[in-house]
Amino acid sequence: AGEMPARGLHVVITAGPTREPLDPVRYLSNHSSGKMGFALAAAAAELGARVSLISGPVNLPTPAGVERTDVETARQMHEASRRLATECDLFIGCAAVADYRAATAAEHKIKKREGEEGLTLKLVKNPDIIADIARLRDSAGGRPLVVGFAAETRELEAYARDKLERKRLDMIVANDVSTAGLGFGADDNAALLLWRDGEGEGGASLPPQPKSELARAVIERALGCLTSRPVH
Ligand code: PMT
């Protein structure tokens, strides 16, 4: 259908930050507001898709027609993603997942120690959610198209291409998060889209624009990849 090109498709999107507890009152996190991921969810729903949105702690209303699952930690986001992504057509990882969590979250509030100037926290790696979903494509049944984001402060294209390859993604949306007014927390964003089209590398530069418009362009490009790729 012309205006509903995503009708019949199930799209799973992660959004927002994750929050990794240090003790009952403190956590590690980042500045993701969820705006970009929620804009993607709204755009996919407007184009007719069934949308599952897995969100870290954010302050945003759920877009119309979107099924939302709220999580806090990377491990919870991982679990929800695995559950939903095995039956979807398109998985988009827009969440700013904390790469590390405390090796053990303290049971009680960590006390300030007299006479000690420093405090050393032991961190361990969180699972790489999107790389794990991308590996599903090798298993029978689960084969979503996998689109990642790359948030970089320098060497945007080189780092994004590295993530595209290393995480075995089909497409990556690279955004420079060092530009004022774009990226984390902002209403606007700009991106460089990189994908694998089978015959060499693609690429497209999307200038600064409202996240709602950028989201629409990303979803449309992903739908293009979905229809052009070989059926499994
Ligand atoms: O939420 P907003 O305020 O609107 O800001 C939007 C944004 C800047 C957060 C968004 O556009 C963005 O860039 N999201 C990805 C942020 C990020 O953490 O990028 P990364 O380069 O660290 O991760 C690369 C990819 O791997 C991402 O698809 C990420 O979701 C995924 N990842 C990373 C680590 C991890 N443990 N698991 C993952 O799935």
TrEMBL record:
GO MF: phosphopantothenate--cysteine ligase activity; phosphopantothenoylcysteine decarboxylase activity
Pathway: Cofactor biosynthesis; coenzyme A biosynthesis; CoA from (R)-pantothenate: step 3/5; Cofactor biosynthesis; coenzyme A biosynthesis; CoA from (R)-pantothenate: step 2/5
Keyword Glycoprotein belongs to the record: no
Sequence positions that bind CTP: G93, C94, A95, D99, K109, P127, D128, I129, I130, F149, K163, K167
Protein species of origin: Billgrantia antri
Cofactor binding, per record: Binds 1 FMN per subunit.
Protein name: Coenzyme A biosynthesis bifunctional protein CoaBC
Cofactor(s), by name: FMN; Mg(2+)
EC number: 4.1.1.36, 6.3.2.5
Gene symbol of the encoding locus: coaBC
Ranges for region Phosphopantothenate--cysteine ligase: 11-232
Residue window of the full protein shown: 197 to 428 of 428
